[in-house]
Amino acid sequence: MEKFNTHTGLVVPLDIANVDTDQIIPKQFLQKTERIGFGVHLFHDSRYLDHAGTQVNPDFILNKAEYKGSSILLARKNFGCGSSREHAPWALQEFGFKVIIAPSFADIFYGNCINVGLLPIILKEAEIEQLFKLSADTQLTLKVDLPNNVITCGELSFTFSLNEFQQYSLENGVDSVGWTLDKLDTIKAFEAKMPAWQ
Amino acid sequence: MTTTNPQTMYEKLWQNHLVEDAKGQTPLLYVDRHLIHEVTSPQAFASLRFHNRPVRHPERTIATMDHNISTRSIKIDAAGEGAANQLRALAINCKDFGIELFDMGHKNQGIAHVIGPELGLTLPGTIIVCGDSHTATHGAFGALAFGIGTSEVEHVFATQTLRQNKAKTMKIEVKGQVGSGISAKDIILAIIGKTGSAGATGYVVEYCGEAIEALSMEERMTVCNMSIEFGAKAGLIAPDQTTFDYVEGKEYAPKGEVFSQAVADWKKLKSDDDAIFDAVLTLAAKDIKAQVTWGTNPGQVISVDGTVPSPDDFSDPTEKESCIKALKYMDLTPGTKMTDIQVNKVFIGSCTNSRIEDLRAAAGVVQQYQGQQVIEGVDAIIVPGSYRVKEQAESEGLDKIFTDAGFEWRLPGCSMCLGMNDDVLEEGDRCASTSNRNFEGRQGRGSRTHLVSPEMAAAAAITGHFVDLNS
């Protein structure tokens, strides 16, 4: 996993609550055995007017010229609800997103983002509202500083927090499986004490 | 003398599985059972190969083919090239890593969350994970069960553990008894209607109360299955005699003395009387009516004797906006009676409602209509959850009741719940579905899903609209 330190990027505001992972990456694109090839299908049903994905929907915000190249997704509450498909963060990442900012995330999606190195940031509703207003008026660029847990934009700043180990993992690009395999003796000791039925 | 603080069931399960809680690290939990399927596992296997790591406990891992498969043929190629590639990859991966696989046509094959319980792979007091959000189903046994992403699938493969932050706890008590004809699906939809679709995000929910205790194991599975639909990490029901009787004698369940010891341990799992929950929700069972969703998330649900709500019914601006968006997508007008909504597709199946009791309930409704057929213009399919369910249903003649009435009787699989195979709705189709999600496009781009019980789905197939079976 790539290390995450700071990131400065353009914000695209997606003003929809309860965005589910079926919307982020519809099921017909899950039939791959690789981790790549999902970005092109991100938000397929919204980005394209036809099922085949040949006609771009000009009204969908990700298709608007002023948001081209955006790397920070500003979202509403309960982002990433529904299916546990990790293909959703893979698709967001491959499309170019490094950070997602929302007032709340669905639990599984949030964990999946951390595990793939896509930074999910929770801000207060009022702060989210402020960012939506700012991004509606102008092209909003934010600097996200993970080591210092702060987002800045000119004079404005917003602080956020992550669980200690998740912050460490993202900053250091930890191979979480390798990290746990170093604890194999502890796991074996636990197994030795388990009851027979378990 | 030491005293122990009263604990919830979740806290006991957590404590029993805590391998390590090191400072500055996310706690490490032991995973007893890992269920896998073709869609969310291939990238995890690829990463194991890349790092030259084995599956640490292949005997704790069970694979089934369910998400992608055809419900018309047991041939691996019947559901298209993409599906076939994933199914073949699963077979190769299971062979290479020594994992038992229930592949196409195997007597144990079926939806992961149907076969786990019916084979005795699902045990109280265990942690069960699967790369599928409806893993919460197994919480019906008093197992801590939850869906995970593919990176976590890999972590479990390699270590048989997972790192998890501790969730908050919510008690949902359903007091008294439900009225006649009210199903487990109605109970859980009514709960989600009350909490909203994200009402339990960050929580592990424990369902209790007389109405929950009175449920069969299969009904409890329906309730726990939809825990994720209001954001819960997992749903739990305390194991009791109903649970032990169900588990005893199942193929993979412990036997003899080991089973007795297990039951003794399982009896200790229930929440202590004075355990404190972070949140409590209480419902009166007698107030729960048959439910139908009208919107595009499972929280947008109403009693069948109600009407389609108006955006003005919501004071929260986000809910109001969601209502406007949902009504547009669903092509519904506020004030329309739910019983006036016409459907042209019916799907009875999915890990929520495809077990034998679900099929019996649906068949019972079909019989009440005394020889009436699925109404013209409606296509109705029944997809049993597993080969065992299918076989049992056929031995009871349920398949005959369905096919005589014009339903299609299909082979087991996830099918139209998510439409990864060719069981997909067309744009504009309106479906009465016993599945778990009514998201935009879930069953097919531009299609409209109404979540209902098997009884309601069967009635909708015969009449072409939703029916208040109690009126």
Number of strands of chain B: 19
Summing up helix and strand content along with how strands pair, one would put the structural category of chain A as alpha/beta
Please name the CATH topology of chain A.
Aconitase, domain 4
- Low-pLDDT stretches of chain B are none
Summed over residues and divided by their number, the pLDDT of chain A gives a mean of 96
Strand order of the largest sheet of chain A: 4-3-2-1-5-6-7
End-to-end distance of chain B, in Å?
Answer: 60 Å
Low confidence ranges of chain A: none
Major β-sheet of chain A, in short? 7 strands, mixed
**CATH structural class of the largest domain in chain B:** Alpha Beta
**Which sequence of SSEs, written as H and E, runs from N to C of chain A?**
EHHEHEHEHEEEHHH
Q: Bin the helical content of chain A.
A: 25-40%
Rg calc of chain A: 19 Å
* Overall geometry of chain B: globular
Number of alpha- plus pi-helical segments of chain B: 15
Looking at the structure, the CATH topology of the largest domain in chain B is Aconitase, domain 3
In terms of quaternary structure, what is this? heterodimer
Q: Which sheet architecture does the biggest sheet of chain B show?
A: 5 strands, parallel
Total of DSSP H or I helical runs spanning 4+ residues of chain A: 8
CATH superfamily of the largest domain in chain B: Aconitase, domain 3
So what's the overall shape of chain A? globular
Any descriptors?
heterodimer; A: 198 residues; alpha/beta; Aconitase, domain 4; globular; B: 471 residues; Aconitase, domain 3; Aconitase, Domain 2; 5-stranded parallel beta sheet; 19 strands; 32% helix; Acoase/IPM_deHydtase_lsu_aba (chain B); 4Fe-4S (chain B)
